[in-house]
Design goal:
Elements: H1 7-24, E1 62-67, H2 77-90, E2 95-100, H3 107-119, E3 125-127, E4 135-138, H4 168-187, H5 191-221
Parallel strand pairs: 1-2
Antiparallel strand pairs: 2-4, 3-4
């Protein structure tokens, strides 16, 4: 038996990976993103209808002011954590710490303060963007004389779950969403990717024609 080599198929197998790498590499974002998750108090409405969800009810508390000098927050991290733990231990009503930030403070200063909140397990703090721009850590007061009630846990160690067989419509909707997502992503490809796909389809068609021609030759020989 004579071996048949499909030249277009071999070219596509060798050339397409090179073209993919050449055209896709400029669009690969190698930036490492760091994300922070922080809740911000709502701004006060003109009619003050949302006053309880803003920082205003806490603004006139008694705060110990700590100046955070530019690019020094990380160096003073241990001191800030100690101040936060001392605040929690005192457990006094309407008290807190005001970390004074200015225009010259860096992003690193702010991130370091957030890390200090996490280390000290300070769960109640707010960034006042509306007026001062300072970071406030407030006391979540706990009344030591308050009686603690113990409740029987009725659902402890129980596993409750419900499993339902997906309907035909659910499966159809899932397939439709999948293909819709595929076509949306294809529309976002760079222009070079269309050249690659078109070249691949062209080589594929040529290869199929070559296979069909060879099969017809074999049938005639037989």
């Amino acid at each position: 038996m004579k071996k048949i080599f499909y030249v277009p198929g071999m070219i596509s197998a060798l050339l397409i990976p090179v073209l993919v790498w050449f055209y896709i590499t400029p669009y690969i974002d190698q930036t490492v993103y760091n994300i922070i998750d922080i809740g911000l108090p709502a701004k006060v409405a003109k009619n003050k209808s949302n006053i309880n969800s803003t920082f205003e009810p806490f603004r006139n508390w008694h705060y110990k002011k700590i100046n955070v000098y530019p690019s020094t927050a990380k160096k003073n991290s241990l001191s800030f954590v100690s101040e936060l733990k001392s605040l929690q231990k005192k457990n006094q009503k309407e008290t807190g710490i005001e970390f004074v930030l200015g225009k010259n403070n860096t992003y690193g200063d702010f991130i370091s303060l957030l890390n200090d909140m996490a280390i000290a397990q300070q769960n109640t703090y707010a960034l006042d963007l509306e007026k001062t721009g300072h970071l406030f850590a407030v006391v979540n007061y706990s009344d030591p004389k308050r009686e603690k009630f113990e409740y029987e846990c009725l659902l402890c160690h129980d596993i409750i779950y419900e499993v339902s067989e997906p309907s035909f419509w659910d499966k159809f909707s899932g397939m439709r969403y999948y293909y819709q997502t595929v076509f949306e992503n294809l529309s976002k490809l760079p222009k070079g990717a269309y050249y690659i796909i078109s070249g691949f389809l062209l080589f594929l068609n040529i290869s199929m024609f070559s296979i069909k021609a060879n099969l017809q030759v074999r049938r005639k020989v037989v």
